[in-house]
C-alpha cells in the first residue's frame, strides 16, 4: 500500500492539481489536528513534491497547516473550499505575488483586499492601463509595500507615484525600478518630494533605482557629487550613487540604492562602480563605452564573490581578468573579442569545471586559432554547450577541441 501511495503522490497528473478536502479522503473530513493522513502529507509528501504543485485546493480548517508546511514556487492557483467571502478577505493580511503587468497590481488594490497589511509584488512590465480602474481608493491598512520591476518604464510619475500616495500609513517601502526620465534623474530630491513627504509614517525605505535620460537637450548634466548631495536629508540610510554619461548613446544614467544591497542581480555596472560587498548578487552585467581596466575586474571579483552569471557588453579593447570560482553562465555575445580571449586563456582566467558560454562563433573561432590553440584549450574543455552556425561543416577537429561539450547546429 505504501509503495502504491508513494508512486501515486509523485505522479505528475496527481501533483499538478492537488485537492486536499474532506471529500477527497476516505474516512470523512481529514482536517483534524491528530489526523495521520494530514500529518504525513505535511511532514513528508508535500515537502517532497512542493515544486511540482501548480494548483492547490484546500479547506479552512487545514489551510494554514498545508500552506505553511513548505514553499510552493510554481503554484499559480489556490482554491478555497467552504470558506466565506468575508473570511477570505479578512485572513489575507500578507501577500507575495508575481504579476505580468501593472494593471494586475491595480486590480489587486482596487479595494477587494482591504485587510492587506503587507504586500510584495514582482512585476514584469509597467504600462498604462487600457481601461479605467478604480485606482484612487486609500489603502490605509497597508504597512509594508515591496515593488520590484526589472523592465524599463517611463510611467514613474504617471503610475508609480500616484499608487504610493494611496498608502498614507505605509511604514516600510522596498522599491526596485528602472525608469526613463525626460528632464532629470531620480535622486534624493525627487524621492523626498514625491514619496517621503507624502508618507509621513515611513520609517524604513529600501530602494534600488536606475534612471536614464537623453542627453540631447540637457543644459546642465548632473554629476555624481550633485546626486550624493541630494541625499543629505536621509539620516538613517547609507545611500550609494553612480552617475554616467554615454556620449555614443547620447544617454545619461543614474543608479541610486540603499546599502546594504539586497537584490540578487546588479545590472549595467560601469567603470565608475563605487565598490562594496554584494553577497546576495548572483547575476552581474557590465556595460561601458570606455575600456575596462585590470583594477575594475579586480574590484568586480571582490565585490561579487558569489556571482554565477556574468555578462560583458563592451566593444572597446581591454585588460586582464580574475578568478571566477562560482561562475556558471558567461555572456560575451556583445563583447570585444579581446574579452573573449582573456576569459578563455587559462593563464588569465580560472573558470569552474562546467559553465555555459554565450559568444559569437566567429570570435571564438578566431581566438582559438581555428580550434588549434593550446593556451585556450583547457578552458574550452569546460564548456557545457557550443552553438555552431549550420553552414559550418562539422569537423572532428572541433569535437576534439571540445571533448565534453554538447555541440548544436543553428
Can you give a write-up of this model?
The chain is α/β, with parallel strands linked by helices and about 400 residues long. It folds into three domains: about 1-85, no CATH class; about 85-260, no CATH class; about 265-410. Helix content is about 25%, strand content about 25%. It is built from 14 helices and 17 strands. The protein has helices spanning about 1-10, 10-15, 35-50, 60-70, 85-90, 100-110, 155-165, 190-195, 225-230, 295-305, 335-345, 360-365, 375-380, 395-400; strands at about 15-20, 55-60, 75-80, 95-100, 120-125, 145-155, 170-180, 205-215, 240-245, 250-260, 265-270, 285, 310-315, 330, 355-360, 385-390, 405-410. Strands 4-5-6-7-8-10-9 form a seven-stranded mixed beta sheet. Strands 11-12-13-14-15 form a five-stranded parallel beta sheet, with no helix packed on it. Helix 14 links the parallel strand 16 (about 385-390) and strand 17. Helix 11 packs across helix 12.
Amino acid at each position: 500500500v505504501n509503495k502504491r501511495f508513494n508512486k501515486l503522490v509523485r505522479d505528475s497528473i496527481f501533483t499538478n492539481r492537488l485537492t486536499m478536502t474532506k471529500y477527497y479522503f476516505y474516512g470523512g473530513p481529514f482536517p483534524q489536528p491528530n489526523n495521520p493522513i494530514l500529518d504525513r502529507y505535511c511532514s513528508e509528501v508535500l515537502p517532497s513534491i512542493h515544486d511540482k504543485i501548480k494548483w492547490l485546493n484546500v479547506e479552512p480548517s487545514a489551510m494554514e497547516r498545508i500552506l505553511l508546511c513548505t514553499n510552493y514556487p510554481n503554484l499559480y492557483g489556490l482554491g478555497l473550499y467552504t470558506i466565506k467571502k468575508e473570511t477570505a478577505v479578512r485572513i489575507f493580511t500578507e501577500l507575495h505575488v508575481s504579476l505580468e503587468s501593472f494593471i494586475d497590481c491595480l486590480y489587486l488594490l482596487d479595494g477587494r483586499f482591504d485587510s492587506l497589511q503587507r504586500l510584495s509584488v514582482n512585476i514584469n512590465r509597467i504600462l498604462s492601463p487600457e481601461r479605467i480602474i478604480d485606482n484612487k481608493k486609500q489603502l490605509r491598512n497597508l504597512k509594508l509595500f515591496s515593488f520590484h520591476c526589472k523592465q524599463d518604464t517611463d510611467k514613474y510619475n504617471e503610475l508609480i507615484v500616484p499608487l504610493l500616495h494611496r498608502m498614507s500609513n505605509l511604514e516600510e517601502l522596498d522599491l526596485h525600478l528602472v525608469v526613463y526620465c525626460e528632464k532629470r534623474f531620480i535622486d534624493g530630491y525627487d524621492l523626498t518630494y514625491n514619496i517621503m513627504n507624502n508618507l509621513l509614517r515611513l520609517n524604513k525605505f529600501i530602494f534600488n533605482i536606475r534612471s536614464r535620460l537623453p542627453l540631447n537637450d540637457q543644459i546642465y548634466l548632473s554629476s555624481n557629487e550633485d546626486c550624493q548631495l541630494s541625499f543629505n536629508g536621509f539620516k538613517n540610510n547609507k545611500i550609494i550613487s553612480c552617475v554616467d554619461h554615454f556620449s555614443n548613446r547620447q544617454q545619461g544614467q543614474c543608479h541610486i540604492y540603499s546599502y546594504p544591497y539586497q537584490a540578487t542581480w546588479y545590472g549595467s555596472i560601469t567603470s565608475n562602480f563605487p565598490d562594496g560587498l554584494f553577497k546576495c548578487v548572483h547575476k552581474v552585467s557590465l556595460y561601458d563605452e570606455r575600456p575596462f581596466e585590470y583594477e575594475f575586474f579586480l574590484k568586480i571579483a571582490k565585490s561579487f564573490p558569489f556571482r554565477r552569471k556574468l555578462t560583458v557588453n563592451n566593444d572597446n579593447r581591454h585588460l586582464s581578468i580574475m578568478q571566477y570560482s562560482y561562475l556558471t553562465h558567461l555572456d560575451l555575445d556583445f563583447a570585444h573579442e579581446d574579452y573573449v580571449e582573456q576569459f578563455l586563456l587559462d593563464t588569465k582566467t580560472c573558470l569552474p569545471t562546467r559553465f555555459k558560454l554565450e559568444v559569437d562563433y566567429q570570435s571564438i573561432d578566431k581566438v582559438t586559432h581555428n580550434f588549434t590553440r593550446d593556451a585556450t584549450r583547457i578552458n574550452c574543455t569546460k564548456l557545457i554547450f557550443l552553438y555552431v552556425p549550420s553552414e559550418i561543416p562539422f569537423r572532428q577537429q572541433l569535437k576534439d577541441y571540445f571533448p565534453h561539450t554538447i555541440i548544436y547546429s543553428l
